[in-house]
């Protein structure tokens, strides 16, 4: 005989006298309980999955499934076994290789990032190969160049040849990427190339670096040679002595333009397998480099670079007309650029 026990509160338990329950009623209760169980389970699962999505967004590692790629592309593997024309892969012939491209903008830490990647014994990141105009004059020369790189037939000081497990290069957005984005995204999806976006959050600091680097192209502050990257604090200090003037009238629109370019690039390649990195995060949080290695399917190693940062400390020390810049940005969406450290 069943008894109904109602717990009204901690102290009171009322025991009702048992009633006779018709079998039909019992069945209804049973079915109702089952439906409730299934519903609760599905709600739980949904919450778990949104929870993990938020986590992924938080760490800025975004690997979205490809919503508008054809089904064919979904089966393209990110793992490859290239067969170079110029050499044999010898003992590493059975090791898989991943293809990547670092999509970035000038003065956003991509040179430093690339030296870090290349300190991995299995990574060949071949530098800014599309800085040469001929190689990006039209889409067919771009494609030819890409084919050669991903077939491991492109040689630079970064080439690891036989035992490369990830091969790529860095590509500035203004070197044909934006212009030929459609064909390039198609190529990436067709050949299973992963994109590593590397941006800088503080676009004002980036602007200072662009202006100083452009000045040094002519001034050649280091014993008559132009250097974009340095390996000692003395060199860094010498380069940082130059303080650029920033045109405060154009400042906001210049910053906005850079921001829009980055957003467009992300949109163009939103169907490509990708990861988004920020220079500031890489500096502050070394575990980001592990995320990158995981993204490229590499055995995780400690990555090192000999490069030294050029503009250290408050930005106010690095700009000639700081007052104007401060006034131009105070109270705007870009105000935080005035304060940030990196
Ligand atoms: C692309 O440029 C190369 C080199 O300038 C040229 O030989 C080739 O004909 C061009 N291809 C197309 C499709 O325009
Ligand atoms: C990485 O390179 C080392 C040394 O060349 C090689 O022994 C190893 O198999 C490579 N690992 C992968 C995953 O290709
Ligand atoms: C520049 O020249 C000075 C003096 O000749 C030397 O001490 C210094 O190492 C040189 N720096 C570079 C970057 O070559
Ligand atoms: C800033 O740029 C604008 C537009 O090119 C120009 O008219 C103005 O003279 C510049 N201001 C300074 C201080 O160079
Ligand atoms: C990707 O970009 C296209 C436009 O280029 C847009 O229509 C689409 O909604 C975007 N998809 C995602 C997932 O952001
Ligand atoms: C920004 O502007 C506000 C009001 O216009 C002023 O009180 C504040 O001191 C300014 N901040 C800086 C850093 O100049």
TrEMBL record:
Keywords: Membrane, Transferase, Transmembrane, Transmembrane helix. GO terms for molecular function: sulfotransferase activity. Gene3D superfamilies: P-loop containing nucleotide triphosphate hydrolases. The chain crosses the membrane at residues 23-45. The keyword Acetylation does not apply. It comes from the Eukaryota. It is an enzyme of class 2 (transferase). Residues 102-304 form the Sulfotransferase domain. Its EC number is 2.8.2.-. Belongs to the sulfotransferase 1 family. This is Sulfotransferase. It comes from Populus euphratica. The lineage of its organism: Eukaryota, Viridiplantae, Streptophyta, Embryophyta, Tracheophyta.
């Amino acid at each position: 005989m069943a008894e109904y026990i109602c717990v009204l509160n901690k102290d009171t338990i009322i025991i009702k006298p048992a009633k006779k329950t018709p079998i039909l009623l019992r069945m209804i209760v049973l079915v109702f309980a089952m439906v409730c169980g299934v519903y609760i389970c599905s709600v739980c699962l949904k919450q778990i999955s949104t929870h993990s999505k938020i986590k992924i967004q938080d760490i800025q590692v975004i690997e979205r499934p490809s919503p508008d790629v054809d089904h064919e592309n979904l089966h393209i593997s990110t793992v490859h076994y290239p067969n170079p024309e110029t050499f044999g892969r010898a003992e590493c012939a059975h090791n898989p290789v991943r293809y990547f491209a670092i999509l970035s903008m000038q003065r956003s830490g991509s040179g430093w990032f690339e030296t870090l990647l290349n300190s991995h014994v299995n990574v060949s990141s071949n530098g800014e190969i599309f800085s040469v105009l001929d190689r990006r004059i039209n889409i067919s020369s771009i494609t030819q160049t890409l084919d050669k790189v991903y077939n491991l037939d492109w040689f630079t000081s970064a080439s690891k040849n036989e035992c490369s497990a990830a091969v790529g290069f860095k590509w500035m957005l203004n070197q044909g990427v934006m212009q030929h984005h459609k064909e390039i995204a198609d190529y990436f999806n067709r050949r299973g190339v992963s994109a590593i976006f590397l941006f800088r959050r503080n676009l004002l600091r980036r602007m200072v670096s662009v202006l100083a680097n452009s000045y040094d192209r002519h001034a050649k502050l280091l014993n008559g040679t132009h250097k974009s990257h340095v390996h000692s604090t003395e060199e860094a200090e010498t380069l940082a002595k130059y303080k650029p003037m920033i045109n405060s009238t154009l400042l906001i629109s210049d910053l906005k333009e850079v921001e829009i370019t980055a957003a467009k690039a992300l949109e163009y390649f939103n169907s490509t397998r990708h990861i988004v990195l920020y220079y500031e995060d890489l500096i502050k949080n070394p575990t980001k480099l592990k995320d990158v290695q995981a993204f490229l399917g590499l055995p995780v190693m400690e990555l090192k670079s000999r490069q030294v940062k050029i503009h250290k400390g408050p930005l106010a020390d690095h700009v000639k007309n700081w007052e104007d810049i401060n006034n131009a940005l105070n109270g705007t969406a870009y105000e935080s650029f005035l304060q940030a450290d990196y």
